[in-house]
Design goal:
By secondary structure, the protein is mainly α. The protein has a domain at 13-58. The chain has three helices and no strands. It has helices at residues 3-16, 19-31, 37-58. This is MT0933-like antitoxin protein. Residues 32-71 are annotated as: Disordered. Residues 32-60 have a biased composition (Basic and acidic residues). InterPro entries: Antitoxin_Rv0909/MT0933. Pfam families: MT0933_antitox (PF14013).
């Protein structure tokens, strides 16, 4: 498996398992006793946004067409 294939596989896994982002962020909050809550929340939202993008990238359009390029 080359790096590109590994990257694509990771995107699919992250896109399908977004619930673990919250679990990880909650664990960090607990371990740090909330000291870094604002930074953890910012990271949580960034990770969720990236996971949503990965999920969108791995799901082909339902109409069989091509996805228009984003600008």
């Amino acid at each position: 498996m080359d790096f590109t294939q590994l990257t694509e596989k990771a995107k699919v896994i992250v896109g399908k398992n977004k619930q673990y982002i919250d679990k990880g962020a909650d664990a960090i909050d607990k371990a740090t006793k909330g000291k870094y809550k604002s930074q953890v929340d910012k990271g949580r939202e960034a990770a969720k946004s990236a996971a949503d993008k990965f999920a969108d990238d791995t799901n082909p359009p339902k109409d069989g067409g091509t996805t228009p390029p984003t600008s």
